[in-house]
Specification:
Blueprint: E1 6-11, E2 14-19, H1 25-31, E3 36-40, E4 44-48, E5 61-81, E6 85-88, E7 93-97, E8 103-106, E9 114-116, H2 117-123, E10 127-130, E11 134-141, E12 152-158, E13 161-177, E14 180-192, E15 198-202, E16 206-213, H3 219-225, H4 233-238, E17 246-251, E18 264-280, E19 287-291, E20 298-300, H5 314-331, E21 335-337, E22 340-344, E23 351-353
Parallel strand pairs: 12-13
Antiparallel strand pairs: 1-2, 3-5, 3-20, 4-22, 5-6, 5-7, 5-18, 7-21, 8-17, 9-16, 10-13, 10-16, 11-12, 13-14, 14-15, 17-18, 18-19, 22-23
Protein name: CABIT domain-containing protein
Domain CABIT: 90-278
Pfam families: CABIT
Length: 355
C-alpha cells in the first residue's frame, strides 16, 4: 500500500492515526512486521454467542506472533455410558495446541498406574509422571570434602510433573525433621525434575505414577505388570489420534476461560490452524488468539511508536513487556473457542463467521 489515508482517534490520552483502508488479518500480516496495532473496522461489529465476551475484540489490539500448526478440538465429557457412549457438554470447544504441556491417558486404557516408588524403581523407566504432590528429599548441604560430615537433606513436597530417573541410592540419609537432624538408612530413587532439580524419593513413598518413557529391554516386565502410560497431545497426533477418542487430562494447566472443564475430553476434530497471538492495547493487557480469516476487517495504527512521548509510549511498552513474558506460554495453553457473528453496520442481515 503506497499511500494511506488516515483517521485520527483517541487512545490512552494519545493521538493514534488509523488507516482508513480496512483489511483482513491475512493481508495485514503479509504487509506488516509484527508487532502491529490494529482495531476492528468501525463498519464491522462482532456479536458474541452465548457464554462468550466480545469486549476484548472491540478494543485496539497488538498483533504479536503468527502461529501455524496442528490443533485438536475437543468437547467436555460429563459421563460415559456403555450403551450410549460419551455425553458431552454443549459448551464452547476446548482447543489443544500440539505443543500443550499436559499429560493424558486414554479413557479405555485398562492398565493401572503404579502406586509406590518401589514399583517405579523395579521398572526403572527413563521418565515417569507423578500425578500428585509427593514427599521427597532435596539436598541443601553438600558433604564435606574430607567426608567428616555427611550431606544434609530437607523434606520437600514435589509438585506433580514428569521426572527423569537417574539411579538408586541406598545409604544413610541425613535430613532435618521438626528442627531436628535425623539420620537413617534409606533406599531412594534419585530423580530429576523438569526444571533440573534433583530429588530423592524413598521406596516406600506412595502416590499415583504413570510411565512416560521406558528403557529398551523393559517390555517383558511391563507386560507382566500391565502398567499404564500417559501421552502428550503432540505424541498422540503423531500416532494417529482420531475423532471420537476419549482422553483424560491427568496433569496439566486447564483453560483459563470458563467452559465447564471436566478433565475428560472427546476428540471432535483435528485441524491445521493459522492464528495470531494478540493482546489488548491497554494498561491491563489481556491476551487472545485470533483466526487468520477473511472476516472481520481491521485497520492499522500508523504511528504508535511516534505518538506524544515517542518511543516512551508507556502503554505500548507495558503491552510489549507483558507479551514478551507471557506470549510463548500462552501459545501452547489450552484455550476455549467461541463463535462470533460478524455484522455490518450498514446491513440488516449479519454475515456468519465461525472465527
Amino acid at each position: 500500500m503506497t499511500e494511506e489515508k488516515v483517521a485520527t482517534g483517541r487512545l490512552a490520552d494519545q493521538d493514534i492515526q488509523w488507516s482508513e483502508a480496512a483489511q483482513p488479518l491475512r493481508q495485514i500480516l503479509s504487509e506488516s512486521k509484527l508487532p502491529v496495532v490494529v482495531k476492528l473496522w468501525t463498519e464491522n461489529q462482532l456479536r458474541a454467542h452465548p457464554g462468550a465476551s466480545s469486549s476484548d475484540i472491540h478494543q485496539p489490539l497488538v498483533l504479536y506472533r503468527e502461529v501455524e500448526g496442528r490443533k485438536v478440538y475437543a468437547k467436555n465429557v460429563t459421563s460415559v455410558d456403555v450403551l450410549t457412549g460419551a455425553i458431552c457438554r454443549e459448551d464452547p470447544v476446548v482447543v489443544m495446541p500440539a505443543g500443550y504441556k499436559g499429560w493424558f491417558r486414554l479413557i479405555d486404557d485398562l492398565d493401572k498406574p503404579m502406586s509406590t516408588i518401589s514399583h517405579v524403581a523395579r521398572i526403572m523407566p527413563v521418565r515417569f509422571l507423578c500425578c500428585k504432590p509427593t514427599i521427597g528429599f532435596f539436598e541443601i548441604e553438600k558433604p564435606s570434602r574430607t567426608g567428616a560430615t555427611d550431606g544434609l537433606f530437607e523434606q520437600v513436597e514435589a509438585k506433580p510433573g514428569v521426572f527423569m530417573v537417574k539411579n538408586i541410592y541406598e545409604d544413610f540419609v541425613r535430613y532435618t525433621e521438626k528442627k531436628k537432624i535425623v539420620k537413617r538408612i534409606m533406599r531412594c530413587l534419585v530423580c530429576v525434575s523438569e526444571i533440573g532439580v534433583e530429588i530423592m524419593f524413598p521406596f516406600e513413598t506412595e502416590g499415583t505414577f504413570y510411565l512416560v518413557e521406558t528403557r529398551k529391554g523393559a517390555s517383558k516386565k511391563l507386560n507382566a505388570d500391565k502398567v499404564g502410560y500417559v501421552y502428550n497431545i503432540g505424541d498422540m497426533i503423531e500416532a494417529g489420534l482420531g475423532k471420537n477418542v476419549i482422553i483424560s487430562l491427568l496433569c496439566g494447566k486447564p483453560p483459563s476461560k470458563p467452559c465447564g472443564f471436566t478433565n475428560v475430553l472427546k476428540i471432535c476434530d483435528l485441524i491445521k490452524d493459522h492464528t495470531v497471538i494478540a493482546c489488548t492495547y491497554s494498561d491491563s493487557p489481556r491476551m487472545l488468539e485470533l483466526p487468520v480469516a477473511p472476516n472481520p476487517l481491521f485497520v492499522k495504527a500508523l504511528n504508535v511508536s511516534n505518538v506524544p512521548g515517542g518511543s516512551t509510549n508507556s502503554t505500548y511498552a507495558t503491552v510489549l513487556k507483558f507479551l514478551s513474558k507471557n506470549a510463548e506460554e500462552y501459545t501452547h495453553d489450552l484455550k476455549v473457542r467461541y463463535n462470533y457473528s460478524v455484522e455490518s453496520v450498514e446491513q440488516e442481515h449479519p454475515k456468519k463467521d465461525n472465527s
